[in-house]
Amino acid sequence: MEKICVAVRVRPPTPESSPENGSSLWKVEDNRISLYKSLDTPISTSSYAFDHVFDESSTNAEVYELLTKDIIHAAVEGFNGTAFAYGQTSSGKTFTMTGSETDPGIIRRSVRDVFEKIQMISDREFLIRVSYMEIYNEEINDLLAVENQRLQIHEHLERGVFVAGLKEEIVSDAEQILKLIDSGEGNRHFGETNMNVHSSRSHTIFRMVIESRGKENNSSDAIRVSVLNLVDLAGSERIAKTGAGGVRLTEGKYINKSLMILGNVINKLSESAKLRAHIPYRDSKLTRILQPALGGNAKTCIICTIAPEEYHIEESKGTLQFASRAKRITNCAQVNEILTDAALLKRQKLEIEELRMKLEGSHAEVLEQEILKLSNQMLKYELECERLKTQLEDERRKQKEQEQCIKEQQLKIDNLNNLVTNSDFKRNQSEDFISLRKNPNGLCNANESSDAPVTPCFKSASHSFVVARSNYALSDFSPMVDSLGDVADEDTWTKLNKGFVADLDKLQYTPAIKRQITPVAMPTMDCSRESYKEVEDLKSQIELLTNEKDSLQVKFNEQVDTNNKLMEEMSKLKQETLPMKEIPKRLSDSVANCKNVFSDVIVTMKSLMAGKDSPTATLLFGTTEITRSLLSTLETQFSMIMDGQEESDQWETLRVSLKNTATSLLSDAQARDEFHNSHNKGLETAVMEEKLKSELSTIKERYNELEKELCLAKASRESHERLEKEVELLKEERDSLDAEISKATRRLRATASEKENVLKDLNVEVKRRKEMEEEIKQISFAFASRQRSLVSFHNEIKSKMQKLTTQNPKSQ
Ligand SMILES: Nc1ncnc2c1ncn2[C@@H]1O[C@H](COP(=O)(O)OP(=O)(O)OP(=O)(O)O)[C@@H](O)[C@H]1O
């Protein structure tokens, strides 16, 4: 890395300068230039130091020696070199670069010096090509061939930036070049302005391409190719000062604009690498051509010229600031060696030799052979051109096929996306459906949306009934809600769809998936077909899953319907069983009544009884005890039933006990009949007995009623149990359905993620395609430039042949 070498040169005051404007306020001390006030006090802010500062008395020889010589010598050794003059109009740029008869400028001195240097290098042979161009009103013109106007800049992988169609003369000595320069100067645009009678209206670039190789003729020996640019810029100008109008004004605008862009490039380059963003080389032809010289592979020096007059003080300050910024630019120059194509130099050298020989002692036969040889060569080049054309066509065709393939894939993916979106819609429907069911109020919203799926309605079921069945809580009715919510996550789907459709490049790629780079198109197409097949498989899987999910959903809805019906039935049954719940209470009351009546009867009978130890009394007391205990048992049983502690076989026990009691009572009644028959009782006793009989028959009737009611209760209980079992079965079925649905949801989710991966792969594929397309473009570009160079070579050979033919009329 080395800094650009920057020097400042102060022109002597012109004879036209008025005494007040003519006195120089610039003082040069060594490599420093400062602006002084009239009383010899330097203005602190206007003092600048550079690599070299040349005062008014300096000569071009000095400038060349100190500033340019090293760069010229380095160019001979294989380094790119650039020297250019910058400054306001009439500040002495052309004087410095071109010079005068008595004091030649940098260009002439460089040309001579190059050949002197070459003479000193005995172990290498050199080939020098020169070109001379100008940039006039932002158009490139060839100064060595006036017909070459408005040339275009191109970029080549090997050649870098170059001007297509620019004439390059192979030269063998300095004088030949100087003659070419003189003829080029004649084609250059000059014009008269108020500031300069001979003002350069264009930027000129004199270019020498120096190729060299060792004389050992070793084909592996590297060829060194360096480019030396000697640039005379047009000067910046203030229209007010130059008084330019019309053509001059237009020229002035172009000049100022391109110099401003050069200033921008210098500004950017002078910033630290961190601050540097984009360097606007492409904004002007000048900066584009000088790109390698500015921050690239070249040794560069800039000579900034200033006019000493006070009248030009502001412009001079501007030039010095430009120079200060340029001083900060670093370049990285290196010897340009070409290890391949070693024959080029030799071939051209031989060609020159052969042509020279033919010129010296030419005869028709030799020329004919030469023409034949050149024709063969032309044919060869034409064939090469054809081959390249076909290759290019092939590449284009392949590219088209790939584009078609990508389009088809894109279409398939769009379809797939639609499919997934539909599936998503269905799932959202299910989600809505489930969220409705999850509503803690148990409200039925079926009427809110006409196209909503059938909603299970629990409104009809009694609240108490639902509460009592704790294992039938609505919240755990279906596990589908949460899991389905994950799958239908809107972001995921939006990303998935948008990511693919909207912008392929913004997608992130699956890091786990790595693919080998396939340089040719065919494997890529195979890969695409595989991806396509994969996508098709996935599509059919998704379809299957969607169908499966739909059928499960239908089943589920059916189950929900059945559930609802059962719930309704159960609710009805519950209503029906409500009066049955009253039975134990009524029975209990009846038993209590019976007990009271029985006690009254016993008390009455006791009072009527003559002897307490008589068999009748003993029987009566025994029966009384049995009946009391039976009635107490009945009371206990009924109160247990009322407290909800009944057991499945208690009804049966109760029924048997009642039956036994009734039998016992009946047998008591028979015994009393016998007693009545055997003992002639009194009238009062008979009345009492009648009363007792009627009481007993009432009890018997009551018992029969109770027995019937008990049977009914048992039957309804059985039906209730059966219904409960059915409900249990339904619940189990529903659970298995739920499990299946969640399984299907998981599978759907897995498929979706697989699809996402496939999409990512496809995007990687598309990106690779893009890169390949880019490569193909570059190849096309390379082919095109190769074709052009072949054409220019062809033209060159043709012109040589024409030259030969004209110089040797004998051959015609
Ligand atoms: N160092 C110098 N010694 C003697 N004369 C000079 C010197 N520098 C410039 N001049 C003279 O000053 C005049 C203007 O110089 P020149 O044409 O080189 O300026 P310029 O910067 O190239 O202007 P423009 O940008 O308009 O082409 C010319 O007559 C030239 O001979």
From TrEMBL:
Q: Name one GO biological process term.
A: microtubule-based movement
Could you tell me one molecular function GO term of this UniProt entry?
A: ATP binding
The answer on whether this UniProt entry bears the keyword Coiled coil reads yes
Similarity annotation? Belongs to the TRAFAC class myosin-kinesin ATPase superfamily. Kinesin family. KIN-7 subfamily.
For the ligand (ATP), the binding residues are 87-94
Query: What lineage is on file?
Result: Eukaryota, Viridiplantae, Streptophyta, Embryophyta, Tracheophyta
Q: Does the keyword ATP-binding apply?
A: yes
Keywords annotated in UniProt: ATP-binding, Coiled coil, Microtubule, Motor protein, Nucleotide-binding
Coiled-coil annotated spans = 345-419, 528-576, 689-775
- Residues forming the Kinesin motor domain are 3-329
Q: What is this protein called?
A: Kinesin-like protein
Q: Which GO CC annotations does the UniProt entry carry?
A: condensed chromosome, centromeric region; microtubule
